[in-house]
């Protein structure tokens, strides 16, 4: 039996590294808020997905106002973010039933292709834990100067959406938080769940710093992302 799809869009941070008064998920990209562009792309490809949007509680009204302003009518379950990303995701998972596939995506990764969204959603029906990854192209160095250097061929960069059978990820999130939980896959790996990977995308970038926004705008206008 095919599992129903749930999408958790994590935008629970304050976006302080952007350096402005507007949270990065609400900044305009191609004429619409970043978060709207992200959710809308998933909804276009997976219209039956249940959308769960994680935001700081204080920004709920701002997001509702933006949705009205931009005529963004996709139904959403709004969930209050926690003190860390781990706690934000755990809050959202309380709204997901067993027997589903949950795709957990950074709300500020708006450039993901519809092909990758569809490919991950299809593969996630077959495996309990699946993430997109990209090769590391830079030479890696240890901060303390150790040698030899880490081998690029053994390291991949993890992206989102990270996809899990809901009973697997919910069980993993019953663990106590540690700072080694840097993404959802690391939480699942701590439970010794096998992790499958799929090739990610170079332009599936996370808007984090001020220079990321004009880059994303350029890519939208030139690469049809």
The gist of it:
The protein is an alpha/beta fold.
Structure description:
The protein is an alpha/beta fold and 225 residues long. The chain is 29% helix and 20% strand. It has seven helices and ten strands. The protein has helices at residues 34-45, 60-69, 85-93, 114-123, 166-172, 184-189, 212-223; strands at 4-10, 28-29, 32-33, 50-55, 77-80, 100-106, 129-135, 156-158, 162-165, 196-199. Strands 1, 4, 5, 6, 7, 8, 9 and 10 form an eight-stranded mixed β-sheet that branches. Strands 2-3 form a two-stranded antiparallel ribbon. The longest helix has 12 residues, at 34-45. It is globular and about 55 Å long.
Q: What secondary-structure arrangement, pairings included, does this model have?
A:
Elements lengths: L3 E7 L17 E2 L2 E2 H12 L4 E6 L4 H10 L7 E4 L4 H9 L6 E7 L7 H10 L5 E7 L20 E3 L3 E4 H7 L11 H6 L6 E4 L12 H12 L2
Parallel strand pairs: 1-4, 1-6, 4-5, 7-10
Antiparallel strand pairs: 2-3, 6-9, 7-8, 7-9
Number of helices: 7
In round numbers, the mean pLDDT is 93
Order of helices and strands: EEEHEHEHEHEEEHHEH
Give the uncertain stretches in residue-range form: none
Largest sheet: 8 strands, mixed
What is the CA-CA span between the terminal residues? 33 Å
Q: What portion of residues is helical?
A: 25-40%
Report the principal-axis shape: globular
- Give the total of beta strands: 10
Radius of gyration: 17 Å
Q: Give the amount of beta strand, in percent.
A: 15-25%
Helix/strand-derived class?
alpha/beta
